[in-house]
Amino acid sequence: MSTGASAGDLEQRWLEMIASGEAYPAETLLPLFEQLQPVDTEFMLGTWKGGKFDGGAEPDPINWYGKRFNSTTDVEPLLVLDADGKVKTFDKLGGAQMREIKYNGVTSAALIYDSQPIMDYFRKVNDDVVIGLGDIKGKPTDFVFHLTRQ
Hints:
The protein is α+β, with helices and mostly antiparallel strands. The chain is built from three helices and ten strands. It has a single domain, classed as GXWXG domain (Lipocalin).
């Protein structure tokens, strides 16, 4: 880690920010993201519940739940809650796959949408929490979100 903060301090900081539900600007989140350890694609397998660092200010028209990583070639990038509160796949943006990709000098698992110019890079907070960084072609790479293993 580049700033000398211990791994435990960094983990605690992320967990506190997630638990707070408050909004945090990219200027706060991006340097912390860069300090996190990489993960491989096998680590990401399973269902993850997602959340954003927007303090609930952004409308959520699809009622986003999270992501499901079935294999490196079969990823459901958008899970949503239906009207009955059941998790289902939101397939209007298509499926995705996983690869290990280098971003800012660190090779880690990344989600690549099949039909959208979007990639999500992942870094590890602990064995059950990762932070994602959304990279949408033509837009700033500054959308940070969290996933918790289910």
